[in-house]
Specification:
The complex is a heterotrimer of chains A (329), B (175) and C (507). Chain A has 329 residues and is α/β, with parallel strands linked by helices. Helix content of chain A is 44%, strand content 17%. Chain A has twelve helices and twelve strands. Chain B has six helices and two strands; from the N terminus they run H-E-E-H-H-H-H-H. In chain B, strands 1-2 form a two-stranded antiparallel sheet. The model of chain B has no long low-confidence stretch (mean pLDDT 89). A two-stranded antiparallel sheet of chain C has the order 1-2. In chain C, helix 3 packs antiparallel against helix 4, helix 4 packs antiparallel against helix 12 and helix 6 packs parallel to helix 12. In chain C, 67% of the residues are buried. The chains are: A alpha/beta (329), B mainly alpha (175), C mainly alpha (507). Chains A and B meet through helix 1 of A and helix 6 of B.
């Protein structure tokens, strides 16, 4: 009897599934897509994800909406575990940043391998610049900066978004390169860091351009050096570290990835969708105004290779500067 | 159990709980001392405040022995049996509802909980009960799923498929 | 000065354009309803309705969201009073006296007081916003970690005496909240702390809302069920024009407190990291401390409803200031508004006033209008909201439980928090029965992270030198806050002493 009922329920759900299934065409989402953000509200990743979600809605690119969900716990640890546990789910994608690599390295107990995720598309490379307040007339370039830091010593305050975050890695790299020691003070979010620089609570920062842009345009802060391969269009007069003979080049990747084992059809759907967004005027305009690098979208298996290289590079980096230099204890 | 006994047990349990927190901070390897030139370490806040919790619970324990608190003089039962039934059944039904969400999904589990509570605890009539259940389910769907685009848990795949089949009408005809 | 008047007039005209005015109406209405739901506050409403605003131009969009923000601040009081569950952290303090008033059958009076106090708070803060926007932006910029920490100390000082009579249990509750706030990732050291049972979910920490809904939604409801046996039925209350007129006569009772709270709320709201929650709590604490009859607070004093409501509305306006002028959100809600503005192609920051005056002054103009619309809607709808109280317990209880569950899930997107809410609710109920006050724990979990972080940031910056908080040359604002905090902490002691002297002379 029980079996009979069970069987008829199964038959019914099977019939339902057939009704729902689109006539064997390209894969499309059948329910709202969870758009996981591995950081809190208000930060760079969050702004980008919400911009993309808005564009998807505005352009009608998906039959079901994308729902942005922030999972900020543990520098992205929570989001990574969530995505890992969602293996095989076609209705979830994640907006990532560099904690995509660093968090699994610093927290090996997490049991997450980011290279196992389904790569979809690299939307942008965010860049870093070294900023000081405009009132620091004694600092005009990198040399005078290093001199000022060395003469101040340990009481030189660098603001950042948290130990183990990208800017703390970059700060540690600079300490190793120039042979000085600074005090790294964590704040919640890049916007707060920028504000504290303008309020002179801290002496320098390594903000993304988008975080400092308003202050830069108002003439309150000035960039000294950019950690990119080539000078950005937004900052034509600021030298790159490489031009000055310093071997530091560091980016923040902003890519979209799916859980491990996403079906090929779904991965293709998301790839096409994000490609279309990437090529849109709105996105390209946003990249230009916010100093993001968005030349071509690295997608699919190319992105997988990119992740693998970056993962290894970050492993080396963390080993080099030492986890304690990043966490500060 | 009298209220007096309950306060004794609670303060002992809270002391143990506080010590447990301190132990957790310690075994996690967090610094509970002053880090030179950096101020308090990462374990200072939870460790010493937990110690404070333990001490205030100890204080309550002392007051219990001296019968200073009103609870320590109260020999009435901690839980009055005739009213306890209502509290217990409410809590158990709520727990069951949350548990069922993972299996049958939000809507069915809400309907079962509300139906059970109104019909068997509240002794409301069937028409009243079904109208409220229907109203609650529809308004939650309309507000959260539709207006606020939240995807509430849908339970096992077969229940989710059923929901998606119904939900499809919204996309076909209204969006 | 004349320039401001001109710009303001243009802004007001703008807000009466049909589309913008429709947005104000829709926003206020949506905000009132979302705010009135337990667990759903302005953050949820603004976050979830943000995508809707892409259909209209930016000015209309921000007007809609600001009206919604506003409406939700009014609405939060509705669930605090009629259900005894704060709609959002900003309405926690409204429960303290709003709930007792409702239990005495004075729900309609409490609601009117909340609406009118909100209106006064809104009006005063908008005027302040208009006049002081540029200079205040400068002050907010000078706020570093030292000042933030001093402000937290000030906030804690105003809570003193907020709990019950049992001092050790009150302190325990505060400490428990502070320790719970430490669960999760420590941003200073980047280390996970208090990850119970190694569950990765704890890395996010224990959300304020989960604790608040657990305690106020589940625990309180169980407690009420036990106290009443589920039998009690509230009398049907109605709010008529006649009653409103009568109530208007009572306004002078709480007008001084309300005006003071509005100014306080606005200034606290403008500070980054502070926002409406500490503002409303500080206002409540101040109202109690300086009241002629402090013992009646917590038992249904009308000023105890008016003060926090005025302050949280004023602070919500105030927190828009750093967002607009600096691009720094003063509260979670303004953080989401900020995200919205970027999507609309605006860059909040020092240049917004110069580059997009239409947008800024349209927003300011709409705030004046939205304030009138919301108070009118709110007063008109009081009978509807109060009807919630007249429902039998066996319908109200399961519906509140359902709203708690859906509210927590909709906010945090995980069942883990729903289970956590259940456990915390049960714990809260059991402790509540032993006279452990629960409100201090909820306040502490909100302010704990801010207090700890700003303290450690300051000490790292000063190389471990504790005197940094009271250095008159470097941190005069911090010193000022700490002095006021000490005075506030000593005030009850002093007034107690004075009362004793007075008693001696009397006998």
């Amino acid at each position: 009897m029980k079996q009979k009922i069970l069987r008829s329920i199964l038959a019914m759900t099977g019939a339902l599934a057939m009704i729902i299934a689109a006539p064997a065409q390209a894969w499309e989402p059948k329910k709202p897509v969870e758009f996981i953000i591995m950081a809190g509200t208000g930060g760079g990743a969050d702004q980008i994800a919400r911009l993309l979600q808005g564009l998807i809605e505005k352009k009608g690119l998906s039959p079901r909406p994308f729902i942005p969900i922030n999972k900020p716990g543990g520098s992205g640890a929570e989001a990574l575990r969530y995505l890992q546990d969602k293996a095989g789910d076609d209705h979830v994608v994640m907006m990532t940043l560099n904690s995509f690599y660093t968090t699994p390295i610093i927290q090996p107990d997490l049991g997450v391998d980011p290279t196992g995720f389904t790569p979809i598309g690299l939307m942008a490379m965010d860049t870093f610049l070294l900023w000081v307040h405009t009132d620091r007339n004694d600092i005009t370039d990198l040399d005078s900066y290093v001199k000022a830091v060395k003469s101040t010593g340990k009481s030189w305050k660098v603001g950042g978004t948290g130990s183990g975050q990208e800017d703390s890695v970059l700060t540690a790299m600079m300490e190793a390169e120039f042979g000085y020691n600074v005090t790294y003070i964590p704040f919640p979010g890049g916007g707060t860091v920028a504000k504290n620089l303008i309020g002179k609570q801290i002496d320098s920062t390594v903000n993304n351009p988008s975080e400092q842009m308003a202050f830069y345009q108002a003439g309150s802060s000035k960039p000294l050096v950019q950690f990119t391969g080539e000078r950005m269009a937004a900052f034509p007069d600021v030298p790159t570290a490489k031009e000055l003979g310093i071997g530091i080049e560091y980016y923040m990747q902003r890519s979209v990835n799916g859980p491990p084992g996403m079906s090929a059809g779904a991965a293709e759907f998301y790839r096409n969708l994000f490609q279309e967004l990437f090529d849109s005027k709105e996105w390209q305009d946003f990249c230009t105004s916010d100093g993001l690098t968005c030349d071509t979208m690295i997608a699919g298996s190319d992105l997988g290779d990119f992740h693998a290289t970056q993962y290894v590079a970050h492993e080396k980096l963390i080993e080099q500067v030492g986890a304690s230099a990043i966490t500060g204890e | 159990m009298s209220t007096r006994t309950a306060e004794l047990l609670a303060s002992i349990a809270l002391i143990v709980f506080s010590l447990g927190l301190m132990w957790t901070v310690h075994t996690d390897g967090l610094k509970i001392g002053w880090v030179p030139e950096r101020g308090p370490g990462s374990g200072v806040w939870p460790f010493w405040l937990s110690l404070g919790m333990a001490l205030t619970s100890l204080w309550t324990l002392v007051r219990w022995f001296r019968r200073t608190t009103p609870e320590s003089r109260n020999e009435a039962p901690y839980i009055e049996s005739d009213r306890f039934g209502l509290v217990a059944i409410s809590f158990i039904a709520l727990t069951a509802m949350i548990f069922l969400v993972a299996i049958v999904g939000t809507y069915i589990s809400i309907a079962l909980f509300l139906g059970f509570y109104m019909r068997f605890v509240g002794k409301h009539s069937w028409p009243m009960t079904s109208a409220t259940v229907l109203g609650a389910v529809i308004s939650i769907y309309f507000l959260f799923e539709w207006q606020l685009s939240k995807y509430l848990p849908k339970g096992l795949p077969m229940f989710e498929d059923g929901f998606l089949w119904l939900d499809n009408f919204r996309w076909e005809y209204f969006m | 000065m004349f320039e401001i008047a001109d710009l303001l007039a243009a802004g007001l005209i703008q807000s009466f354009e049909p589309l913008n005015f429709a947005m104000i109406l829709a926003g206020c209405m949506a905000g009132l309803f979302i705010g009135a739901m337990p667990g759903l506050g302005s953050v949820n409403g603004v976050a979830i309705l943000l995508p809707v605003t892409f259909l209209v131009p930016p000015t209309a969009a921000i007007i809609f969201l600001a009206a919604l923000y506003y409406g939700a601040m009014y609405g939060g009081a509705i669930s605090s009073i009629t259900l005894g569950i704060p709609g959002a952290s900003t309405a926690v303090a409204t429960v303290f006296d709003g709930r007792p008033m409702a239990q005495k059958g004075k729900a309609n009076q409490a609601m009117m007081a909340a609406a009118i106090a909100s209106f006064i708070g809104g009006t005063i803060s908008i005027i302040l916003f208009t006049l002081f926007a540029p200079p205040l932006a400068e002050v907010a910029l000078k706020f570093g970690p030292q000042e933030e920490f001093a402000l937290m100390i000030l906030a804690f000082a105003t809570f003193i005496g907020l709990g019950g009579d049992d001092i050790p249990k009150t302190i325990f509750s505060i400490l428990l909240g502070l320790v719970m706030a430490a669960v999760g990732f420590d941003i200073i050291s980047g280390k996970p702390r208090l990850i119970f049972f190694d569950m990765v979910e704890f890395q996010r920490g224990i959300g304020f809302l989960v604790l608040a809904i657990g305690i106020y939604g589940i625990g309180e409801m169980l407690w009420t069920l036990e106290q009443t046996g589920g039998k009690i039925k509230f009398d049907r209350v109605s709010a008529t024009w006649a009653e409103l007129k009568k109530h208007l006569g009572e306004i002078k009772k709480y007008l001084p407190t309300t005006s003071l709270s509005s100014v306080l709320g606005f200034f606290v709201g403008t500070l980054p990291a502070a926002g409406a929650t500490p503002a409303s709590l500080m206002a409540y604490g101040l109202a109690k401390t300086f009241s002629k009859d402090p013992d009646s607070f917590g038992k249904g004093n009308i000023s105890g409803v008016a003060a926090p409501e005025a302050a949280n509305n004023a602070a919500s306006t105030g927190s828009m200031l750093p967002m607009i002028t600096l691009g720094i959100p003063g509260s979670p809600t303004t953080a989401i508004l900020l995200g919205g503005m970027i999507i609309w192609g605006l860059r909040p920051g020092p240049l917004l006033f110069a580059n997009n005056p239409d947008f800024v002054w349209g927003l300011i103009g709409s705030m004046y209008v939205a304030n009138f619309v919301t108070v009118a809607l709110n007063l008109a709808l009081i009978p509807l909201f109060v009807r919630v109280l007249a429902m039998p317990f066996t319908i109200l209880t399961p519906i509140i439980f359902i709203l708690c569950f859906v509210g927590v899930f909709a906010t945090t997107d995980r069942m883990f928090d729903v289970w956590l809410m259940l456990v915390l609710g049960l714990g809260g109920y059991l402790l509540r029965k032993l006279n452990y006050p629960v409100a201090p724990a909820v306040l502490a979990i909100v302010l704990g992270p801010l207090a700890e972080r700003s303290m450690r940031q300051s000490l790292i910056g000063s190389q471990g030198d504790v005197t940094t908080f009271i250095s008159i040359s470097e941190h005069p604002i911090s010193l000022g806050c700490i002095v006021i905090a000490v005075v506030l902490m000593l005030y009850p002691v002093w007034s107690n002493y004075r009362r004793k002297i007075a008693n001696k002379t009397a006998f």
